[in-house]
Fold this protein.
Amino acid sequence: MSDGVATAVSRPDTPASTRKDWVSDQEVRWCPGCGDFTILAAMQTLLAEMGARRESTVFVSGIGCSSRFPYYMNTYGIHSIHGRAPAFATGLAVARPDLDVWVITGDGDALSIGGNHLIHTLRRNVNINIILFNNQIYGLTKGQFSPTSEVGKVTKSTPYGSLDTPFNPVSLALGAEATFVARTHDMDRKHMMEVLRQAYDHRGTSFVEIYQNCNVYNDGAFNDITSKDRRADYLIPLVHGEPIRYGKDGEFGVSRGEDGMLHLVKVADVGEDALLIHDMSLDNPSQAFELSRLARGPHEPTPIGVFRSVDCPEYGYEVARQLAEVEGRKGIGDLSALLRSSGTWVVE
Amino acid sequence: MTLTTTSKNVKEVNQVVVRFAGDSGDGMQLTGSRFTAVTSLVPNDTATLPDYPAEIRAPAGTLAGVSSFQLHFSDHDILTPGDKPDVLVAMNPAALKAHLSMVKSGGIILVNSDSFDERSLGKAGYGSNPLDDGTVKPYRVYEIPMTKLTLEACKSVGVKPRDAERSKNFFALGLLSWMYTRPVQPTIDWIEERFASNEMVKEANLRSYKAGYNFGETAEIFEARYEVAPSRFESGTYTNVPGNTALAWGLVVASRLAKMPLFLGSYPITPASDILHELAKLKNFGVRTFQAEDEIAGAGSALGAAYGGCLGVTTTSGPGIDLKAETIGLAAHLELPMVIVDIQRVGPSTGIPTKTEQADLLAVVHGRHGESPVPVVAAMSPGHAFDAAIEACRIAIEYRTPVYLLSDGYVANSSEPWRLPDLDALPAIDPHFLDTPNHVDDQGNASYWPYVRDPDTFARQWAIPGTPGLEHRMGGLEHADGSGNVAYDTLNHEKMTQLRQAKLDAISKSIPLLAVDDPDGLGGAEVLAVSWGSTYPAVLAGVRRTRKRGLKVAMVHLVHLNPFPSNLGEILGRYRKIIVPEINMGQLWTLIRARYLVDAESISKVQGIPFKAAEIESAILDALDKRRVARS
Ligand code: SF4
């Protein structure tokens, strides 16, 4: 009786779905050309491919352009409060471990007003997939700098240039010891889908930063990384178990120098054997963190891919385990005994 | 060592008010609650008032560090913890100084004379020893070297003197137990169980307790012992319950009644944390407690769990409700059930965390942006917190709305004998989860519309995630009734605003009509006293006193503060004189004047402590005198 809701959910075998099944009847209202469209399509395609169930899928968002996402998914969805989606999703995921819970958020939503919830969700490792659309600007409020905007950003609220040092979302997540941390971008649907697939499969909190172009207020912010002509020199692909190298002919790479630090190197200078082999499964997040520090912004060669993916106790599972353990020890709670637990007396 | 009782003169008294006071490290709360527990076994009726500083260890020996526990017990039905102590137990000079003025003239004062050394007197701010300089002359003072006697009693136990000294509160408990002929064995059993893991401490406490008892018996200084005959209680099984515990139990029972697992999202805050502590123990009742990173996440997680079909609850005190306001607005807008427990304390800002106040009423009724009606239910006593919790959950679940459950520091920490309810007789709460589509679109496809309503209650049909075919989207943007689709059209907004208010108003149909307590029949009395929350006991006690004087006084108590019971206006309209005593600056008073256009008078007190019966009595007398003046 105590867990009536969680067990009442039936999951009948439904035939495999197609992308169309995941498209809601709502008109999509992002600006034409916005990077959000690609992410939406990738998500719809992925969930159909993965055999996910619409009735067991919940999208939770905060406020911002990206946070309209749940309205466009033919699943359960909540467009909640600015910054608070991880808190809402945590309660839902802990109460209902049978659900697939996604949080769709942006740089302002997740890192500014909702920063506290984000880091605490990551450290607890609740079973939620957090997808952060990073466009380095406030779109919905019409173009103020965000906590990921570069220093000196000229916007309506910073006519003489912004003074704040930005967050690096991947560094932040790794600092909170997130168990799955990845970065992808909106111009490579295949890569994005692969990263989202791994995020979906991961038990615990998955954190995915997607570089997303806001073509209205911050167009081209990620051009170095996404454009065909520059991509090779600026995008460092992270592939688990492979040496980290980039450049048109793989002529550059990442290597640990004699100073103990990671450096961008010419493969010809150091030799192939000196290249760092990417290992996303390292228990210690330090190397992943170092990789996240290679670029100070998307105008320098930037690692893209899965930084970290490790198995750790998942919070909701642990909560359920503790409940079962106590129930096993004490038996199902007896209300009448509870009310008598601090001693009683009888009046005839 | 045995406890003998002799033929020392036993005097019968009807009621006694005892106050234990000492340094926060002296264990006065434990002593007081133990004395209450054995007093309940007589059984006497009891009412308590614990009072302690906000600091965990305020500087020892100072006035700021004094902690006290007042107990009123009697052979008849009593309501309040008593206005003035008959007996003060003062463990140090600071305790004496802080509480002396409140003791009844001619009352008994028991002091630990060992603590009246120069240093302690200085810390308490006494220039000379009050025991010698005439300060305590109006009282019957017993100077007892409690520290020395405790150390002696523990000599052979083997505990260090410093640890032995800590048992002196048990000496005081033993002495009081002798003085008031309290049952002895239950306390001995309790000490043995509570300190079972530490043999030495257990032995020290037992010996000190017995030494205190025997001191009363053998020392030739007390002329009498006192007896308070059993009070007449309704038949049933009773327990002594603090308000926070009863409230936590009420939530668990509501969860069973609704067959919805309880989820508590909470951030620690005084004086609400005990609810989190109590519920955290109850995992075998399917209760999930989540200690969130902040107040906002406490509310957010509770709402998330509620969305998933759990009974979502968040607990807090004053400052916490400011932080939770936005989430509560979302819950009201989404129309999801959720219970927000506010254990009110002195504000604004951090205020005085351990003292009581009722000053959040307007904040919970109105304190959110936009039109966001939220029902409010208030607990009137420790035991009633159980019923109030169930009522808040009932309204939340059946009407799909956030509900504020108000309690306060006084209800939370004090305790009273509580007759256990018949759990089987409690009505079930039905969440009516929808599992089939409730709408057919133009193409003939079945779907679910989240805002299809019951025509009487206006409650929406509710489907939870995991239900196939009923997938839907909701959010904080204004939406159309029925479909729930985002809708910016302004007439729709007006309609939705009216609907949300109509739903709140409809709740009053499910609330029992208010019964006025007027010996002369509705409208018969000259004055009506209106109470809410924890003012109930003092207002009733004050009303009874004035009735004894032959005055015609009526009383009505409000459990539901939003919406009000549907006949409140009619009741108010029948009295020419209305007083509204509150531990705030007149918040309910403001609400009823605005709502019913009645010329009520506010009786305000904001001292962090409850009303005394005498204060209500004199307020009623004043009200009637004013009326006579007006007539002449
Ligand atoms: S403002 Fe920018 S981020 Fe927002 S919808 Fe338009 S293009 Fe996309």
Confidence is low (pLDDT under 50) at residues 1-12 of chain A. The first strand of chain A starts at residue 57 and ends at 61. The pocket of iron/sulfur cluster is lined by residues A 30-31, 34, 36, 65, 135, 139, 214-217 (CB under 6 Å).
